[in-house]
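Q: What structure does this chain adopt?
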Amino acid sequence: MSIKYAGTLLLRSVMVQRNILRGLSTTSNDSTTSEKPPLLIERLSKKHEGIVQIRMNRPQTKNAISKAMLESFCKAVEELKFDKSARVLIIRSDVPGAFCTGADLKERRTMPAEEVPKFVDRIRQLTSNLASLPIPVIAAIDGYALGGGLEIALACDILIATKDAKMGLTETKLAIIPGAGGTQRLTRAVGVSKAKELIFTAKMIDGIEAERIGLVSRAVDDKSSVPYAFEMAELILKNGPIATKLAKTAVDVGSQTDLANGLIVEQQCYAQVIPTQDRLEALKAFSEKRAPVFKGE
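A:
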């Protein structure tokens, strides 16, 4: 796919769209300005088969996380955990200028005090479940990714942002702290000192700075990062699905321990790819000078 791939119109022509909100009531904020639900899951077909999109769509709040949106997001991730046809997940926004601006503060003000920690805990569960998905997850960040929105992005494996995107854990401005994994995942991404600077000051940074400090893997000079996320996903699709999943396990688990134990994790993951049919197919395809056809077996 070309970097200048037209994206949305062509992609939607091959999408199989499914509303994951059947039977789930939404707040009036989610339905007053858009016929679409606040979040959609879409499975692509044909040459993009295996790519799944989660698309956020609350334009009136710049994708602020409402209770309805949060529940639909949690259900989508739980469903994908057991979806054998899913190979790569892209999380993106349908709202120009915003990835996700964190919790819906208007809704938060009406929430009883005892409900707030439950809501935050549910977001924390979402980011943990998102991070533990067995497939690669790509965040395409256009516009603002603030508070819980950045915490969702931090739970992804690969972050791609536009150069003018705005990112930050801004919770201390509201006299709270990041509560959905931000203090931990940001620290692992950029180091202790830089994480403290960004959290203590509630500073927002653009995509250029985010790439420089290692918060995102790539900052693109374009209006949208979505075509680049699809380009990345297509590169992943070409590779062995079992190998990709085990590589993710090796990196995630190994990075949380010392080198000696990390090497043991790698060895154990490598042992699991040896008996696969995909490995034999790769060797056969190499000898026959053709592209391999992987089946995840």
